[in-house]
Design goal:
- This protein is mostly helical and 95 residues long.
- It is 82% helix and 0% strand.
- It is built from four helices and no strands.
- The chain is elongated and about 50 Å long.
Length: 95
């Protein structure tokens, strides 16, 4: 699994998730969870990066599942868990 994690399609989705979690945490610390009239930069970055993340995950799965099924499934579990953590944070904070 570790050599597979060195591929950009393997490590970029968890990095995007980590960035989005940091972005959401900073945004909530600065502005709270009150809804604003304009969504702002944080919301726009979230709306751009989450679909990009899912596209990268799909590319990774289509390339690596046929080649190395077990390692690819382990990496996919990391990627999907990271994306789910971001979505759960947004859901529970009602952003």
């Amino acid at each position: 699994m570790l050599p597979l994690l060195q591929r950009p399609t393997a490590f970029i989705p968890p990095l995007i998730s980590a960035f989005l979690i940091a972005l959401i945490t900073i945004h909530v610390a600065q502005f709270g969870t009150a809804h604003e009239a304009d969504e702002g930069t944080a919301a726009h970055l979230f709306q751009l990066l989450m679909p990009l993340q899912f596209v990268i995950i799909a590319v990774f799965a289509s390339v690596w599942l046929p080649k190395n099924r077990m390692a690819a499934l382990q990496v996919l579990s990391i990627q999907i868990s990271a994306a789910a953590a971001v979505l759960a944070l947004v859901f529970f904070l009602r952003l």
